[in-house]
Design brief:
Largest sheet of chain A: none
Order of helices and strands of chain B: HHHHHHHHHEEHHH
Strand order of the largest sheet of chain B: 1-2
Number of helices of chain A: 12
Radius of gyration of chain A: 23 Å
Number of helices of chain B: 12
Number of domains of chain A: 2
Helix content of chain B: over 70%
Oligomer: heterodimer
Structural class of chain A: mainly alpha
Chain lengths: 250, 280
């Protein structure tokens, strides 16, 4: 099916991106998680399954990523929104990831820009505070959301509104080897998330548990919930035995 | 009507002011986050209802506002609510100097605790579980991921009141006892073991389509046997391609400290290479 979107779809998706980032900055809502953003986008463009799959793939890539101390990480939320919206036009999962992954990486530039532009408001707040103008200080804080929200909303709007047509024709002209490569890329990418996650866990100390978990699934076909229960038992046993070993009891 | 008089009375901080400050902090803390002073302005705006009551005279209010405009940054959902609660209690009692040292002293450790709890322990585990449902087209995974965010924001309320009740006692509360150590141990072992199971399950589709054809003569008749590479590999080590891919990525990040974006590009090259030769 080759058709574009009405003007409302890019507008609604832009609002979604704006609300997602601003409600994440405050109470830490997770509309910014690729899985959630992909799900909602899927409902808006009428392909929930696609949104879930693209969102889940991007979420797996982001496992070990966290904005430690305000660090910039790839914007998988925007990647999920664009990937789902473009993929739903006909290219499906492969096309969606081919759009979503580069978008997530390119968006890091705009995240840096958004964080930098907000500096204007703290200087404004300095001046109002000097005069004892609490209204002015309040406005400086509340307007601070604009660079954050618009740095997501504007690219989403433009990419879905203007980009759908050109990106779509590009996807249809993609050669088979490229589509195959993107397919394998999608299968491999969770490795990135796992690697970053393992890098943060004390693997030197706890590697035996990694092997136990692997054996339970790969050889014994234990479902994940079963592995989680075994892991819970193992972790409590470890802490208890370690505690009694330290006290000289066995 | 007495109530309204009381609330309008300068110098008296009411429970309503405290609730207002807490909600400002929950909903907007990082709206004006910037590279220069990060969460400072959000903290000031959240504290403003308290400051206006405590410092009715303009000069003192200006001084108090300028204090709060200095650099501040910590974990927003786990770290900041108790710090903010404690400093609300201190501002109320006009201990302005103690406020500054409390903020500076606690923002680092609380960022460490909060970011580890959220980013290393809870979020990855919930995300892997939710994503495995999402890959199967089950919306429950996405709903779980959304609920996780709701849990973080709801937690900010009791954490704020905990800080408010503790005041300066908060510092001792955090540094004493081996509780954090035990919880960290349980959570990391749980995490490592579950990840061990998740690697082969989530990446189970990463298999080789490669097949060999072998013509053998059985009783004088030529028969073609088809052997799948993956079947052979499964007998040696199941999920060998997921292991190799995760191993490569882990080695790149651990040994060579390569940034995620570069590892991503390397994986893309490997994926295109192996798919071009038909191995994957």
């Amino acid at each position: 099916m080759i058709h574009g979107y009405s003007i409302w779809v890019p507008i609604i998706l832009a609002i979604l991106a704006y609300v997602a980032i601003v409600t994440n900055l405050g109470p830490g809502f997770t509309l910014t998680e690729a899985l959630v953003a992909g799900w909602i986008t899927g409902m808006i463009v009428g392909n929930v399954h696609l949104g879930l799959v693209i969102g889940a793939t991007l979420t797996l890539m982001s496992l070990g990523m966290w904005t430690y101390g305000g660090a910039t990480i790839p914007d998988f939320m925007t990647g999920a929104i664009l990937g789902t919206a473009i993929g739903a036009l006909g290219g499906g999962e492969t096309a969606g990831l081919a759009v979503g992954i580069p978008a997530a990486i390119l968006m890091t530039q705009l995240d840096v820009l958004g964080r930098a532009v907000t500096t204007i408001f703290i200087h404004g707040a300095d001046r109002y505070a000097e005069k004892g103008d609490t209204r002015g200080v309040s406005w400086m804080h509340l307007l601070g959301q604009l660079p954050w929200g618009l740095s997501r909303a504007i690219p989403v709007f433009l990419a879905v509104w203007l980009g759908a047509g050109p990106i779509q024709s590009l996807i249809h002209s993609m050669p088979q080897w490229f589509m195959n490569g993107m397919h394998v890329t999608g299968l491999m990418l969770p490795a990135l998330g796992f690697a970053l996650l393992l890098n943060m866990l004390p693997l030197n100390k706890h590697w035996p548990f990694l092997i136990i978990g692997f054996v339970l699934f790969a050889y014994l076909n234990v479902p994940i919930l079963g592995i989680a229960l075994a892991a819970l038992a193992a972790s409590f046993l470890y802490v208890r035995l370690k505690g009694s070993a330290n006290n000289g009891e066995y | 009507m007495e109530n309204t008089n009381l609330e309008a009375h300068p110098g008296v901080v009411t429970p309503k002011d405290i609730r207002g400050a807490m909600w400002r902090h929950i909903i907007t803390l990082q709206w004006s986050w910037n590279y220069e002073r990060m969460q400072a302005l959000g903290y000031l705006w959240s504290m403003l209802p308290i400051l206006k009551k405590v410092y009715p005279e303009k000069e003192a209010l200006i001084a108090a506002m300028k204090r709060h405009l200095s650099f501040y940054n910590t974990n927003p959902q786990i770290g900041s609510p108790p710090i903010f609660g404690a400093t609300v209690a201190l501002e109320e009692q006009k201990y302005g100097d103690a406020v500054d040292s409390l903020k500076i002293g606690l923002m680092g450790p609380f960022a460490g605790i909060g970011d580890t709890l959220q980013g290393v322990l809870v979020r990855p585990l919930v995300a892997v579980f939710a994503a495995s449902l999402g890959l199967a087209g089950n919306w429950a995974g996405a709903a779980i991921m959304f609920l996780l965010g709701v849990v973080w924001s709801v937690l900010m309320i009791p954490l704020f009141y905990m800080g408010y009740r503790q005041g300066t006692g908060l510092v001792d509360e955090v540094t004493g006892g081996g509780l954090i150590d035990r919880v960290t141990n349980i959570a990391t072992i749980f995490g490592v073991m579950v990840v061990g199971g998740f690697v082969p399950s989530i990446m189970s589709k990463l298999t080789s389509p490669l097949t060999f054809h072998k013509t053998v003569e059985i009783a004088g008749k030529a028969t073609t046997q088809t052997l799948s590479l993956q079947t052979i590999l499964n007998q040696i080590l199941p999920a060998i391609f997921p292991i190799l891919t995760v191993g490569l990525a882990y080695w790149l990040v651990k040994r060579w400290k390569i940034s995620p974006v570069w590892i991503l590009l390397i994986l893309v090259v490997v994926a295109f290479g192996t798919s071009a030769i038909g191995l994957l």
